Each structure stands twice: as structure tokens, then as C-alpha cells.
Amino acid sequence: MSAQAESDRLRLEADTIMTRYQQVQEALEQARSEDGDHWDTGTLTITLDTPQGDPIDITLDLEDDPAANAQSRYERAKELEAERERREQIVGQLAPLPADPVAYLICYHLDTVEGNYPRSMAGHLDADRAHVEELCEEMERAGLLERVESGTVKQRNVKAKAADEVRQHHTYYRLSREGDHLLRFLDDADGQVNVLRHLPDGHTLVERLARGGPDYPRMSARDLEMEFEYVRHLYRALRQVGLVMKYEGSTIKGTERSLKPKTETHRKHTYYVTTDRGDEVRRRVDESAK
Fold first, then answer.
1. pTM score, whole prediction
2. I want to staple 216 with a disulfide (CB 3.0 to 4.6 A). Which of 45, 66, 80, 269 is the partner?
3. Distances in Å between the alpha carbon of 265 and those of 70, 128, 272, 275?
4. What's the longest Cα–Cα distance across the chain?
5. What is the pLDDT of residues 92-111, one digit of tens each?
């Protein structure tokens, strides 16, 4: 049951208890004067009509009066609603960022080089130039990037460039203060939890690695019927966030990998595995979805 559904159920039970106050009081008093299994559990389950007239089963605390039974439900519903609002607020911090792995990679790239133009970024990220240009424009509108006048860009601040001078006719971008804050948010567990909610298929890949062991982008793309370039960038973005890392061994033992069981796999591709933080974040996302 979702947090919202649980909150709604608790409030309905509380409203029903208060609406049928006398009936609840009589049921509790009668149960306390009789022997029965309710003394073993300390609870009493009764059927009441909701304010709308629909029957509902409610389990009461035998030791509390009707008001206390209702109040405990109101308080729990309020806690659930506050937690849901907190989660929505956290996810909202990622809302300005396009839900695209290349957008994540652009942010991390600009954090490293301090300023660059789309064509150069596309080369460094092995991404489509037009796609990078579109993302940069969208991220500028969202306030995550800001344009830099090319005449003010110094070579010492553009680490991705090898030339002594920058090209005057390019549109350079750098992270804005909001973009820098977003990357800091992605450093903590709450931010990383929300990456798996914000980034399409991110949870799918982390779950795949957690359950099946080391895997490489081409095989993931084939098995999941996704575009290879998309999966490749998705793995790289998840690695930048800290949820996956490259598998460093030269061979993969069969006990490490259930996706394609072999006694031993000689590593010819770039394989990825989950990090400890990735496993922790995945569990948090799974638990919150229950």
C-alpha cells in the first residue's frame, strides 16, 4: 500500500471511530468484561459503518478509549503525509535537470573543466553534438548552466582545452550556483535515492547488477531491449553519482555473475558492479515503494 493510501485509510478509520464514538465505547467496555483472545493480543477488531455508510473493519487498542484510538491514527497519518511531502521536495530538487543521463554527465564534466562549449563536450562525453547543444540550452533555461562570454574564458580555467587560446565564436557554458548545489545534493544519500526515481531506467540497471552481478552496456542494452548508446551513458552517469563502479578484475568467476553463468568469464568489455552506496540506495527505493 502506498503512503498516500495508508494515510487515507488511517484518517478514514479515525473519522469513523469519532463518528461512531458511543458504539466503539460500548464494544470496548464489553470486551474488557469478557474472556477471549483479545486479551492475548491487546486488540479488538470490530466492524463499523464509515461516515459515508460503508462497512469497515477496525482494530482497536483494547486499553485506549475511542478518542485515543482515533488520535493515534490521525498522528500516524500526519507522519506519513509529512514524509511524502519531504520525498516530493527532495525529488523536486532534481526537477530542473533533464531526465537524461547525458545531462548528468554534462554537469559533472563542467564541474571538472569549469567551462566548455557543446561541440567539445560532445567529444569528451562521446555523445551526439546536437543532443548536447539541446541539453545545454534546456539546462540554461532551467538555471543549472550559465553562458560565459568567450572573450572572458581563460585557458587556465578550461582544462578540457589543449590550445593556448579559446575560440571566440563558440558558446561556452559553466555550472551556475544552482547547478553546483545540485551536484552537492547528489553527493548525499537522499540525492542518490532520488536519482533512481528521477533517471529513467536507473533503478532497472542497479537492480540488474545487484541481482545478477557484473554486466556490460551492450549486453544490458540487448537483454533490456534498450538503445546501446543510452545504456552506455546511463552506466556512466550512475558511476559519476557513485551508484555503480567499474569491475577491475581481469576475469569474472561464475559465482560472481548469474546473468550469463560460466565457470569463468575473461573480461573483454567494460563491466560494471554496484557500489555499497548503490546497494543501500536501491534498498531504500524498494522499501519506500512498498
1. 0.65
2. 269
3. 60, 32, 14, 21
4. 91
5. 788 889 989 999 999 999 99
